[in-house]
Amino acid sequence: MANEPKHPTDQGQQPESVPGQDSDILTTSQGAPVSDTDHSLKTGERGPTLLQDHHLREKIMHFDHERIPERVVHARGAGAHGFFTSYGNAEELTRADFLKPGRTTRVFVRFSTVVGSRGSMDTARDTRGFATKFYTDEGIFDLVGNNMPVFFIQDGIKFPDLVHAAKPHPDREIPQAQSAHDTFWDFVSLHTPAQAHVMWQMSDRAIPRSYRMMEGFGVHTFRMVNALGRSSLVKFHWKPKLGVHSLVWEESQLAGGADADFHRRDLAEAIDAGALPEWELGVQIFEDDGTSSFEGIDLLDPTKFVPEELAPVQPLGKMVLDRNPENYFAQTEQVAFHPGHLVPGIDITDDPLLQARLFSYLDTQLTRLGGPNFAQIPVNQPQAPVNDMFRDGLHQHRVPEGIAPYKPNSLDGGCPYMAQLGSGQLPPLEFPQPIDAGRKERSEPASFSDHYSQARLFYLSLSGVERAHVQQSYTFELGKCTDVQVRQRQVDCLANIDTGLAAGVARALGLPAPAAQELGEPERSPALSQIGKSWPVDGRKIGVVFDRENHDDVLAIRSALSERGMAPMLVSARGGEIAGGVAIDRTYLTARSIEFDALVLVGPLPPAPDAEAPLDAKAGDAASDGDLVDPRAGLLINEAYRHCKAIICLPGESSGLLRAVGLPDEAPGVSVVEVSAVADSAARLLSTHRAWERFPAAR
């Protein structure tokens, strides 16, 4: 080490040009600076070496593969390009450059389901991935999270067990993209740490209306370090501008058949239409006092979340998605995320699930992307300069120069140089966290043994409508299990969460209700409920249903809805254009209720075509006179009504359309207004997403 060439700037010289790569300091493949490539990260002077040492694993992994398919999970995804703008309020929290004032950073985001294959449907009941790649000036930062803040398991060693249980049965490869089968419920009823996440998955959170209306979470607790070296613990949150909204169960099933690409299409069409999806990135902040706990909640347990009422989310910046991928395979399919892709000022913690992910993601890319050079794929390339000294391997596109890809060296002038510490350059990526040497063992802390209280907290924080949906979900899923013991065991687990929930599911399944438990009454967390708030209506799709022969009011309605930021779509019996060359977007044959957040009925509508009408139907009579409306239009209206969506009618013949299809014309969420008031009425009704009070008895 004493003879190793010094950095030229230490002697007042300008650095030489760098052979083959474009950084004058050593970096990881993601562009993060490396200050030491001679020592692995250990617990103290004598080890053992830590699995979290990303530079060690990346360096050896690349060497191991210098001689040179579908994701196992998260196979079905949708991606988009965008940008993140910092609010500039994080300097006390972290030295991360992309969070400094005035910084705008390019991003790529991939949303996905977890269990299904690439050919499965978007709207299956499932957890969803929410992964964001920040192309910062200090290298890649990947925030790899989900749309739920908790996970099924506490230790990464259980991940193969979880995925094997959730995937289709290995004998018949069915059912696809579903958890409603024996192996999944066998596992989670026996591995009770999964109960908290399963409660989220049985809620409406598992069937989001849109990726644009989906919350995101980093799941784990991370560490942030400021310029003075002070550490804080944080949990990441993505808050959607449009609020958190879901499909109803029947909608999700209809979408699976009518439009398996429902979420992908919605995201792409919203961006094309200029209704750009937005999220705020925020963090919950906890003191790094060495306990890794907060208000009795173990922050290193990934099956636990911290209610926002106890630790408010501090916004750090805003993300906008403004461009669809140019090529699905090149970008959305080949993008490679990794929770170890960090930047100075953000570090990982000792969460045992996160620690295992640091190995798993890197290992996965080798198989999926064909070798160790996946960072050279354009969508994965860092914006920061890179000089990692890696050579060769499958899919090597760079042409390195120089003859000394090792350290120390003199033949390439000592290049690349170590990142210098304490001289105005970057501090090390890893926070010097004190470690209790202890003994090496396979165990877990006692605080990990509480498997039910947070499931109970989540369930009791929901509205009555949402709790009813949870009970229906458990009933449906367990009803698909053929093993009665599996059903009964899961119902017994529910008795540890809520006696009423367990009794309701047992009754519906024809099982004996478990004995009532003496359960504590946790504090509710109102932030967990999706119902009861008011939200923007930007980009909400409104089906304007009309007879193309009677379209005098349609253009005015279309224009007014567009001016309010909604997305009107014209629906009629036949396609083509109306006055002014305006195209009809959907016909009764190509439209289905799942596509629309609300309907505007502009009557009268034509009756059923002669070929489909009953023999005694009077073709040409007005629908409002009681004859059958085209059954496809009737289906559209009935489904929207049944799914508690807003329905807006014009006075006169339009208002009679509901009666014509067998529905009451006075009900919650149904509005009869003049043409000039349609847009205001739609915005008001849609701001709460649905008219849940339409069916109070069913709740």
UniProtKB/TrEMBL annotation:
Superkingdom of this protein's organism: Bacteria
Known EC number:
1.11.1.6
The chain positions of domain Catalase core read 27-415
Q: Name one GO molecular function term.
A: catalase activity
* Keyword annotations of the record: Heme, Hydrogen peroxide, Iron, Metal-binding, Oxidoreductase, Peroxidase
> Which residue ranges does the record annotate as region Disordered?
1-49
Task: List the InterPro entries.
Answer: Catalase, Catalase_AS, Catalase_clade2, Catalase_clade2_helical, Catalase_core, Catalase_haem_BS, Catalase_immune_responsive, Catalase_large_C
Q: Which cofactor does it need?
A: heme
Q: What class of enzyme is it?
A: oxidoreductase
Q: Where is the composition biased (Basic and acidic residues)?
A: 36-45
**Reaction catalysed?**
2 H2O2 = O2 + 2 H2O
The UniProt function text for this chain reads: Decomposes hydrogen peroxide into water and oxygen; serves to protect cells from the toxic effects of hydrogen peroxide.
- Family (UniProt): Belongs to the catalase family. HPII subfamily.
Q: Under which name does UniProt file this protein?
A: Catalase
From which source organism is this entry? Answer: Glutamicibacter halophytocola
